[in-house]
Amino acid sequence: MSTIKGIAASNGIAIAKAYQLTTPDLSFEKKKIADPQAEIDRLDQALQTSKQELEKIKEHALQSLGEEHAEIFSAHLLVLDDPELVNPMKDKIKSENVNAEVALNETATMFINIFKDMDNEYMRERAADIADVTQRVMAHLLGVSMPDPALIDEEVIILANDLTPSDTAQLDRRFVKGFTTDIGGRTSHSAIMARSLEIPAVVGTKEITKQAGNNDMIIVDGLEGKVIIQPTDEELATYKDKQAAYEKQKEEWAKLKDEPTFTKDGEQVELVGNIGTPDDADGVLANGGEGVGLYRTEFLYMGKSEMPTEEEQYQAYKAVLEKMEGKPVVVRTLDVGGDKKISYLDLPEEMNPFLGFRAIRFCLDEQTVFRTQLRALLRASAHGNLKIMFPMIATLDEFRQAKAVLKEEKEKLKKDNIAVSDDVEVGIMVEIPATAVLAKQFAKEVDFFSVGTNDLIQYTMAADRMNERVSYLYQPYNPAILNLLHNVIEAAHSEGKWVGMCGEMAGDPVAIPLLLALGLDEFSMSATSILPARTQISKLDKSKLASLKEKILSMGTAEEVVSFIKEKIGD
Ligand SMILES: C=C(OP(=O)(O)O)C(=O)O
Ligand SMILES: [Mg+2]
């Protein structure tokens, strides 16, 4: 047994067998072969096995994830059946006396290169399909196995170098009990997804995929950020107790599920949830959320081969609004970019994607995408308490432009006699330091702010939120961050506007007393953090905390802030 330290990314304890979600080594050597027919038979066999596997995956995906996810595997099966791809491979084996691996690789690479540069989205997607299928056939030729997350049908812990948001979206939570990755931080999107799926996770372990192999017994301790490989009987027993204690603690928290959120001295704040899909709204309600403070709509656009239509989007937004039954729902418009890639939008590779052409910058440029989303949102607004929020706003001009587009779409809908609410608040994410500094000017024009600390911290500290090498600089409690927050909250309140926070800091037990001291109105967090936060807030005295504000804001380091606040709240 051994223990690896990582970053606690999603609460809870999970115990199950390891499932490596890593691509095996597919390197091979070029060989001259004596019997071309035997080599062709070997290729046929690999193609056949791949086909059977894909049929199984497709069937499974259809049942557990729905038609849309299964569609991609139909495309892969078509590739395997395409004589225009397969025959040249066989010809190559015969005419050049090379092994099947070489014939497969060279032929596939040739087609991929032709398709990927075509000015046609459909053909570019075929290049991706061929690349994907070739890997599977190659694995069979080499006698190694490819991971197939869609086929998992027993309880496992996923081990991966990293999980993309779309990988994470495909995990079946009935079987995936937890996951752990080599890279990533608490605010990387795989970690955020783990929290909304309520799966314990530890990220940034640096080496889990090297240290553990398939079927090793694994414990993921998402409370303390530890992963135990091949635990002893004693460790297993200890962790089963810890798991039971955590379940008991959850029952304790659940007592406040249907209560509003009050501090000990009777001040009310709002505790709402962050969601990525309409289904996540169930988790927010089950955990006593008073609304949705952030609906990350980019997940609607991911894991698909084309843009979601206005109707599809309308149905998704309406579903959330209806589930929340009049409780506030803040929907953020498309925040593509950074680590959130959407294949069919075909955005250019950039040197600094987190500082690049993304979110509102992309939407104001690609107005068809933006207008389709705004129309869907406006139509959905008739079904509940919708608030629209624009991401990554850096200048007042961007906000004014976005609002003008929204107004135009609203007028068009009204002209067509389509029901639209007149009470939709329009706000912005404050996640760029320039906007936090200029909050006073913004506050005159927006209806609300929601602080996105995940990005605000990375941009203020110039420390990538995904990079564990600089995670020591990713400091939510740094007085620089707290002073920015203070500026935003004061500016909003002086204009009679409310301020929420939807970055991960809002659910952090060390940050909560600081945020109460600063006067934050709404805290939006992963569903599983809501009840612990409500319990914590019920024991805190807001006016006492507020009296510490000046002192906290004048401090020089994050460490000073943390030890001071912990001492004051008696932690
Ligand atoms: C909530 C935020 O947005 P995201 O994590 O989706 O970038 C944030 O930046 O804090
Ligand atoms: Mg952000």
Automatic annotation (TrEMBL):
Any GO molecular function: phosphoenolpyruvate-protein phosphotransferase activity
Reaction(s) catalysed by this chain's protein: L-histidyl-[protein] + phosphoenolpyruvate = N(pros)-phospho-L-histidyl-[protein] + pyruvate
InterPro entries associated with the record: PEP-util_enz_mobile_dom, PEP-utilizing_PTS_enzyme, PEP_util_AS, PEP_util_C, PEP_util_CS, Phosphohistidine_dom_sf, PTS_EI, PTS_EI-like
Broad enzyme group: transferase
Keyword field: Coiled coil, Cytoplasm, Kinase, Magnesium, Metal-binding, Phosphotransferase system, Sugar transport, Transferase, Transport
Cofactor: Mg(2+)
Domain (PEP-utilising enzyme C-terminal) ranges: 250-540
Listed PROSITE patterns: PEP_ENZYMES_2, PEP_ENZYMES_PHOS_SITE
Coiled-coil region list: 396-423
Stored SUPFAM superfamilies: Enzyme I of the PEP:sugar phosphotransferase system HPr-binding (sub)domain, Phosphoenolpyruvate/pyruvate domain, Phosphohistidine domain
Record-listed E.C. numbers: 2.7.3.9
Record family assignment: Belongs to the PEP-utilizing enzyme family.
Annotated function: General (non sugar-specific) component of the phosphoenolpyruvate-dependent sugar phosphotransferase system (sugar PTS). This major carbohydrate active-transport system catalyzes the phosphorylation of incoming sugar substrates concomitantly with their translocation across the cell membrane. Enzyme I transfers the phosphoryl group from phosphoenolpyruvate (PEP) to the phosphoryl carrier protein (HPr).
Protein name (record): Phosphoenolpyruvate-protein phosphotransferase
Species, as recorded: Tigheibacillus jepli
Name of the encoding gene: ptsP
